Automatic annotation (TrEMBL):
PANTHER family: BILIRUBIN OXIDASE, CUPREDOXIN SUPERFAMILY PROTEIN. Gene3D superfamilies: Cupredoxins - blue copper proteins. It comes from the Bacteria. Pfam families: Cu-oxidase_2, Cu-oxidase_3. The keyword Lipid biosynthesis does not apply. Belongs to the multicopper oxidase family. The keyword Acyltransferase does not apply. Residues 59-171, 374-483 form the Plastocyanin-like domain. Keywords: Capsid protein, Signal, Virion. This is Spore coat protein A. GO terms for molecular function: copper ion binding; oxidoreductase activity.
């Protein structure tokens, strides 16, 4: 047989293999939803807010009654949420007390290259520290920070090294959107657990090594059979009959979700999208369902006043079966006053057009071969080449715009550091309804071709583009571009 793994191809085209848990799992919707705490600066001065985070191992209760060892920012999964004001410099000192090197990348951030978390720019284990400086001269958005160590991002993020970093600005604050307790970041991620509660992951589990199927699982992507939201299995949350702003982040290694509400609201769309990866949309957009690939963010408003008090509204995953068809549940428990609304204009649109492009490039995300001699093996490549820190596959000029055609053999969520983009087309047709806005990650299906309009603003230096299926990334599906 194929060992402990099952093919995960039914999971909405995610490439990956399903790893089953051996631990006793709770019934869905029994554990309350945790919300990660907002980190306080250790010091603020005229120039910056300073934060300190210790990366450490910790035992936490994820499955009721069992302890799971995680690697977490401040020992938490998700890590504490950092909140920054646009243009206010944020300095985060990360101390690595883990037994392995780490790298921190602020995903979606416009960050100078030396602070961007280049895959080989590690913080040594055993107590070394690095100061990451984030200018955050960019609009309000849902960013996240996570580990990015070359070849080991999959296992290190799986173990818990991920958290939210929200950017706020005056323009957003002036909008009457839901705020405070009605604005909730939701990190969705799948995991599998051994009988003792420890996380199962192929490369880290000596008992699993050399079992048939493990290599393939590692190469395809790892899918777990437990869906966690903010680190809790299929949680539930009591809500008022009011509007809520939900910031969805798919923090999974390889799983895609098709989010929907069950029951759908009797009137109006389930989700009113107000923001994409990189910030608010010019105008809101209603969706009945949202496909979300690893690393994508969708900032939405859900109006629970459309439901009678007493309704239990399941956040469903239409790509999954059985327990994998559940994400979490919202229980509408009380009536409440609500003066929030979603205005028909959110932020000023920044006009960009294909005519602004000064170059066209093509990148094929597909299988290939890497290594030398007897170590040659199948890997994931970009334009047929595995990642090499010494080779840049594009030189782009700071301040210019380019059209990039990205082609995928199987499903690959493709992410660019530094540069944000708009999706121009898919397979020669227009973008999906959920493609609008500035993005940093595009969800590409098998045999799909998309054109993106990329704007290279910010900083000079070497940055990466890669597949955000973290096992693909670790299997070399990454490429450098130099901003000159
Ligand atoms: Cu979210 Cu290069 O990563
Ligand atoms: Cu991929």
């Amino acid at each position: 047989d194929g060992g402990p793994f099952e093919r995960g191809a039914s999971a909405g085209g995610s490439t990956g293999r399903l790893l089953r848990s051996q631990a006793h799992l709770p019934a869905p919707f029994t554990v309350p939803l945790p919300v990660p705490p907002v980190l306080k600066p250790v010091r603020s001065d005229g120039a910056a807010d300073h934060y300190e985070i210790t990366q450490r191992a910790a035992a936490v209760e994820i499955l009721p009654g069992l302890q799971t060892e995680i690697w977490g920012y401040d020992g938490r999964f998700p890590g504490p949420t950092i909140e920054s004001r646009r243009g206010r410099r944020t300095v985060v000192t990360h101390r690595n007390t883990l037994a392995v090197p780490t790298v921190v990348h602020l995903h979606g951030g416009k960050t100078p290259a030396e602070h961007d978390g280049y895959p080989t720019d590690v913080i040594r284990p055993g107590g070394a520290a690095k100061e990451y400086v984030y200018p955050l001269d960019q609009p309000a958005a849902t960013l996240w920070y996570h580990d990015h160590r070359m070849d080991f991002t999959g296992p290190q993020v799986y173990r818990g090294l991920a958290g939210f970093h929200l950017v706020r600005d005056d323009e957003e604050e002036a909008l009457p959107l839901p705020k405070g307790e009605r604005e909730i970041p939701l990190l969705i991620g799948d995991r599998a657990f051994a009988a003792d509660g420890s996380l199962r992951y192929p490369a880290l589990d000596p008992a699993l090594r050399d079992r048939p199927g493990v290599e393939e699982a590692y190469r395809d992507g790892v899918l777990g059979d437990v869906i966690l939201v903010n680190g809790a299995p299929w949680p539930r949350m009591a809500v008022s009959a009011a509007r809520y702003r939900l910031r969805f982040l798919n923090g999974s290694n390889a799983r895609r979700y098709r989010l929907a509400l069950d029951p759908p609201p009797p009137s109006g769309p389930a989700f009113v999208q107000i923001g994409s990866d990189a910030g608010l949309l010019p105008a809101p957009a209603g969706h009945a369902r949202i496909d979300i690939a690893p690393a994508e963010r969708f900032d939405v408003v859900v109006d629970f006043s459309a439901y009678p008090v007493g309704t239990k509204v399941r956040l469903a995953n239409e790509f999954g079966e059985g327990n994998l068809s559940h994400v979490m549940r919202f229980d509408v428990v009380r009536k409440a006053a609500d003066d929030s609304r979603v205005p028909s204009r959110l932020v000023a649109a920044e006009p960009v057009s294909r005519r602004d492009a000064v170059a066209n490039r093509k990148f094929l995300f597909g299988r290939g071969v890497g290594g030398h001699g007897e170590h040659r093996q199948a890997m994931w490549t970009v334009n047929g080449k595995p990642f090499d820190t010494r080779r840049a596959d594009a030189r782009v000029r700071l301040g210019t715009t380019e059209v990039w055609r990205i082609i995928a053999d199987v499903h690959h969520p493709v992410h660019l550091h530094l540069a944000h983009f708009q999706i121009l087309s898919r397979n020669g047709r227009g973008p999906r309804a959920t493609d609008r806005g500035w993005k940093d990650t595009i969800d590409l299906g098998g045999s799909e071709v998309a054109e993106i309009l990329v704007r290279f603003t910010g900083y000079r230096g070497r940055y990466v583009m890669h597949c955000h299926n973290l096992e693909h990334e670790d299997m070399m599906m990454m490429s450098n571009f130099d901003v000159v």
